[in-house]
Specification:
With 105 residues, the protein is mostly beta strands. The protein has one helix spanning 34-41, and strands at 16-21, 24-29, 47-48, 54-55, 68-71, 74-78, 89-94. It binds FE2/S2 (inorganic) cluster (FES). Residues 35, 57-60, 62-67, 78, 80 line the site of FE2/S2 (inorganic) cluster.
Length: 105
Amino acid sequence: MKTDSRFKTLIKSTNDVNFTLFGEIVTVPKGTTLAAAILSNFGEASRITETGALRTAFCMMGVCFDCLVEVDGNPNIQSCMVLVHDQMVVKRQIGLRSIGISKDD
Ligand code: FES
């Protein structure tokens, strides 16, 4: 179910960035943090915890870790701490990330 965001950006820019956010192409002004882009484009949670709880950006300053997303295949990225760039692919993070250790390690 898609929910409209209650957040709207007030910045108008001629220098925009296009990237893929949760499967949709999104355009935001250059210099926008990923968390701000998520909040201004989606009203849904940006991650789901291992217990199924919905989370999205809260503190916007790198403290709460509720804004974790997968960026370009890399999990556990704090969306409030990175700027959006062209061709970035952002996916919703679901559950815990894999730590990449096999039984042979
Ligand atoms: S919003 Fe709290 S760490 Fe990103």
